[in-house]
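Example record used in the benchmark description.
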Amino acid sequence: MKTPITSALILAALIGFPAGSVFADPFSAKQEAAIQQEVTRAYAEFVLACERADLAGALRAYPVTPDFHHAVMDGAIVEFPRFREILADFLASCTAQKAFTKRQEVYVTGPDTALLVWNGALEIIWKNRPVQRLEPYSVTFLFKRIGGEWKIVFQHESSSQL
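Model output (structure tokens):
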């Protein structure tokens, strides 16, 4: 059964009424490129903080929200308070790290959301252990624009070397 709203949307699409644009691609190539650049910039700032083992700098990439989730390498899914503890412990145990990018892609999924998929190697310079290299190492981030800033609201890490 058709509702008046459904009929109106179909009619608008058929006659080319601007409301019919809900059926069209909402992004121009220029808008998509701008979002990709903004997310890439936010990610680069996050990586730089992580490479310096700068907890405060790394945490700026995340919103304090109950909606945040992180899938750690062992498959556990944690919320932000636990993730903050994991990140703090990790960064406190190393002096630096270096990310070696093999592939990085940003997929725009909406005007305020994007996926960043990164693959490469991670070299960790531990305080009390030999240098460790995780390769292959991949991370998928879901970025969301919150208050005008791109924040990581979900991330999943993966490596064959636990």
